[in-house]
Input
Amino acid sequence: MVKLSGMLSRFFPVTVLVIGDFMLDTYTTGKINRISPEAPVSVLHVQKEESRPGGAGNVALNLVSLGAKVISVGRIGHDFAGDVLKDSLENEGIDIEHLIAQKGYKTPVKNRLIADAQQVLRVDFETVTPLSEEWEEWIIEHLPPLIEKVQIVAISDYGKGFLSRNLLKEVIDISRSKGIPVIVDPKGDDFSKYAGASVIKPNLHEVYIAAKFTQDIPLEKVAPSLLHSCGVDMLLVTRSEAGMSLFHKNGQSFDFPVRSKEVKDVTGAGDTVLAMISVALANNIDIKYGAQLANIAAGMVIERLGCARIYLSEMAERILEYDVENKIFDEEHLFALQQVLKGKRYNVLGIDSTYGMSTALFRSLRKLSPPGAEKKLIIYIRDTDPDEEFVTLLSSLSEVDFIVLKCESLKNLCEIIHPNQVFVMENEKLVTLDHATALLGGRVGYAMGV
Output
């Protein structure tokens, strides 16, 4: 069985080209305490307003949160919203050199009115405007050198007119000629414009519209037909509370159940899925595992209000919650632990499994990790070949947060994240060490007793 925490260890910095419809999401938050005397409508008393990139911009933000570098290709207007959007992306370190400003085009703005943590109304300021021929030619001319810099291309289509059929064809053809995967979040009822893409990820409703099938036909029959007609390699269907389903053109299919604690707002979940799949494929991770990671990330997004960003540290922590086996870390899975421990305080206790579970050891565990303790407790097993039953027993204890195996693992961990205190069990006593690297040697008889 492959641990998903191990998949995170294969996440290296990648560069992603995000091309599509960039928008500005505005959140107007307040309280509703009365009905207007002018009409039978609620009065929202505004307490806060904030704006952040939406659409393809939200995809870019999620990619940055996952450790990727982003080159943006899109369109804004000569307006205040466009300036805010451009500045917001640039402040995140996103390359905006190819974010063009088209004359006569208005930057799309979606203003969500929120009261008591509930969205009560959305006001959209937008017009569907075709991309001008001059700008289309300019972008196509600059695509080859841009695509050479990236490991994957993410197309975020919100149907605002930027992604012309000709532009889509050029993006996909150039990418395929250079061996660069293309993943598309589609829009509309004609997916043939994405022919040649590696993956398209529509929602369930969009699948039936594009395939021109009625809802009573099983998805298992609709998906292969759509794959054939649109000419892509894979179809990843987001199915709301049912999770996601993956269909290959070779006939294989997989289902991934949703993983969410609570559903507050589905806004932006598709953008998060697009970002996670892009990073996974760019790191040569099988899409089956990428889809599972994306499912978890999307589940976290819908627990929050508005478009949310998911960070690797949050992903790692959520993955570890799902499987108690994830308490145990070796070299392959250490990256996930590093992400979880960022910004947290923790202690390290070194023990030898050959001594087994003694009363002194259990008493020491309770001392270092009392109920309600803020510090995490990491057990470092000093044996080169630890007893499996002992490790399993330790992992079942609530006092133990994580277990690290192998000397090199602890060394690598402590070089990145410094523990608060380091202890070792010596002769049935808990003793303090100056540094975790002291655990990498043999017996430590010189440490001070606790």
The mean pLDDT is 86. The first helix runs from residue 4 to 8. Residues 327-449 form a domain with the Rossmann fold fold (CATH 3.40.50). The two ends are 41 Å apart (CA to CA).
